[in-house]
Amino acid sequence: MTEKIRIHLADDHQVLLDGLSRLIHTVKHYEVVGTSLDGNNIYEEVLDNQSSILVLDISMPQKDGIAVLKEFQQKGFPCRVIVLSSYDDLKIIKEVMNLGASGYLTKKCAGENILEAIETVNEGEEYFCKDVRSKIFDTFSKNNPKLNAFEPQKHELLTTRELEIVTLISLEYSGKEISEQLFISTNTVETHRKNIMKKLKTKNTIGLVKYAIKNNLIKDN
Q1: How far apart are CA 30 and CA 21, in angstroms?
Q2: Which fold has domain 5-129?
Q3: Scanning 185, 186, 192, 196, which has the fewest C-beta atoms within 10 Å of its C-beta?
Q4: CA atoms within a 13 Å half-sphere pointing along the CA-CB vector of 103
Q5: 9 with 21: CB under 8 angstroms?
Q6: d(CA 55, CA 127)
Q7: Could you tell me the pTM of the whole model?
Q8: How far apart are CA 216 and CA 152, in angstroms?
Q9: CA distance to 138, 175, 176, 180, per residue, from 188 (Å)
């Protein structure tokens, strides 16, 4: 028997909570075990109902989603957190991911992507909905399509070359395009890619995007 994924929903609109609850309960091994209309007691509530995942709105009365995440970070995360927001602003995305959120979902794509987000985050991966991924990739393209202004900082895990490759992979460049951009062979690109994935302990491009966010390879403007 599949163990149920226990989910707590936090949003200040009861209609949205009801709609998400109905959708989530269409999956047999998903269970909504609690809801919150404000941010005041969310930490205690998810501890009490032993939630696996919290879906958390940013704009909450009493205590907003950022404050809730800061409380989680201070006290220790009792569950994984998917942020639900009306905004796709990169400053907010960067802040919540740096505070420890595992996913970011805009409200306009919540109905389409919430089930996928829960499954992905429950498996230990990070999740960005399509709108957020597009915003991130667009920002890469506008600010630095050819790496002309690329000024990598020193990072503990990756070399300068690996940082360049992370950026290009996140831009969805192919191995051939990366080799042409950096004047290296496709075999060298593949070797770097495998080493990067191993160092960052990630299996997909989303993990690379999160690394780019945390290390300020993505600009806010």
Answers
A1: 10
A2: Rossmann fold (3.40.50)
A3: 185
A4: 32
A5: yes
A6: 12
A7: 0.69
A8: 9
A9: 27, 9, 11, 12
Q: Which amino acid is at 67?
A: A
Per domain, the residue ranges of the chain are 5-129, 144-214
Quick one: tokens of 147? 């790496």
**Paired tokens of 8:** 């707590």
Q: Which 3 state secondary structure label does DSSP give 18?
A: helix
Alpha-carbon distances of 154 from 139, 158, 191, 216, rounded to whole Å: 22, 8, 21, 11
Place of tokens 């936090």: 10
* Paired tokens of 74: 């201070």
Of the options 3.90.1150.10, 2.60.120.1140, 1.10.10.10, 1.20.1270.360, the CATH number for the domain spanning 144-214: 1.10.10.10
**Closest of 78, 136, 151 to residue 106, by C-alpha:** 136
pLDDT tens string 111-150? 889 999 999 899 887 788 877 777 766 665 555 544 444 4
Q: How many CA atoms lie within 13 A of 200 on its CB side?
A: 27
Q: Which residues face 30 on adjacent strands?
A: 5
Q: What is the dihedral of CA 126, 72, 11, 18, to 10 degrees?
A: 70
Distance separating alpha carbons of residues 115 and 20, to the nearest angstrom: 10
Q: Which two tokens stand for residue 182?
A: 């950096």
Query: How far apart (Å, rounded) are the C-alpha atoms in residues 156 and 165?
Result: 16
Q: Are 212 and 167 in contact (CB under 8 A)?
A: yes
Element (H, E) at 194: helix 186-200
Extract the tokens encoding 92.
Answer: 């907010």
